[in-house]
Amino acid sequence: MITASHAARLSLPETDWRTLWREAVTDPQELLGLVGLGHLADRLPAADAGFAVRVPRGFVARMGQGNPQDPLLLQALPQLAELDVVPGFATDAVGDMAARSAQGVLHKYEGRALLIASGSCAINCRYCFRRHFPYGDEMAAAGQWRKALEHVREDSSISELILSGGDPLSLATAKLEELTRGLAQIPHVTRLRIHTRLPVVLPERIDDAFIRWLGELPLQKVVVLHANHANEFDARVDAACARLRDAGATLLNQSVLLRGINDDADALAALSERLFAAGVLPYYLHQLDRVQGAAHFEVDDDRAQALVEAVRHRLPGYLVPKLVREVGGEPSKRPV
Ligand SMILES: *Cc1c(COP(=O)(O)O)cnc(C)c1O
Ligand code: SF4
């Protein structure tokens, strides 16, 4: 139910998203305290296991109290297991991360070019390859846009530009406007896709200025969200999704299969149902990139397939995500 004060909060720019971004929890002890687990501080690894803690307060508010296994908490809280060195888990799991950040544009798949628009994220997900590439915001500079757009302009086979990162919506809307002004001069690009976790972890980012920009874009628009568990949704996330749809975006979701977080058929089915309730279709369920520090999240392929099979038996086909893995050098994501 939406109360009057709630509605006011949804429509008024009472707290700018950048302020909420800055006010994120960055101290793991504080995070434990906020969810009633202050007594577990001795289970934290020293120095955040080499990857800073960052989680917006609105996302913390969706975590359960007193539950060390909470599926949202586990995505953000450093654990001792991150210090384990496990064979097969590298610091450059996808193989091309260095090239990604230097060049800024990745054109591996036919018809689609992916732009590393920003290296920043509002949340630091413990399972992310980004833990080894704390690259900055260098892509936001106008000169870098120009180089990336030049590549896209010169290749008429590219019909879809994907903004990825990091999180491209970490950029100011004015920066996004700057990019799409350049894009408007490239007739063969007909679709803009945005890969972002912000509508889920910091829904305030989907503010009036952003919606105006998105709504006025003369392109087809796809926004691929990233949520891993039904509990990540609340009324504010629903409102952000509704605004994105009203601005003409098709909404999809990608998740990562994570041991202890969403690796059971009930959790996956509930996620699909919750996505659909928010007007979002499940797209990909990714097998984890094998990065050092994330081995404790891995689910083996046999179990992963069995889980998706169980979901397939329960839900309509359009609510079953495709189970995939990213393999360097392949022409697409590889179905598992
Ligand atoms: C994942 C990815 C894409 C998008 O692939 P889709 O299957 O179209 O979602 C495009 N380019 C690169 C480099 C990617 O890693
Ligand atoms: S939001 Fe995406 S890119 Fe950023 S830390 Fe999380 S998984 Fe990685």
From TrEMBL:
Residues that bear N6-(pyridoxal phosphate)lysine: 333
Pfam families, alphabetized: Radical_SAM
Membrane-spanning ranges: none
Residues annotated to bind [4Fe-4S] cluster: 121, 125, 128
Entry GO MF terms: 4 iron, 4 sulfur cluster binding; isomerase activity; metal ion binding
Matches recorded under CDD domains: Radical_SAM
Catalytic activity as recorded in UniProt: L-lysine = D-beta-lysine
Gene3D superfamilies named among the record's database cross-references: Aldolase class I
Required co-factors: pyridoxal 5'-phosphate; [4Fe-4S] cluster
InterPro entries hit by this protein: Aldolase_TIM, EpmB, Lys_aminomutase/Glu_NH3_mut, rSAM, rSAM_sf
Alphabetically ordered keywords of this record: 4Fe-4S, Iron, Iron-sulfur, Isomerase, Metal-binding, Pyridoxal phosphate, S-adenosyl-L-methionine
Domain Radical SAM core: 107-330
PROSITE patterns in the cross-refs: RADICAL_SAM (PS51918)
Family membership noted in the UniProt record: Belongs to the radical SAM superfamily. KamA family.
Protein name per Swiss-Prot or TrEMBL: L-lysine 2,3-aminomutase
Gene (name only): epmB
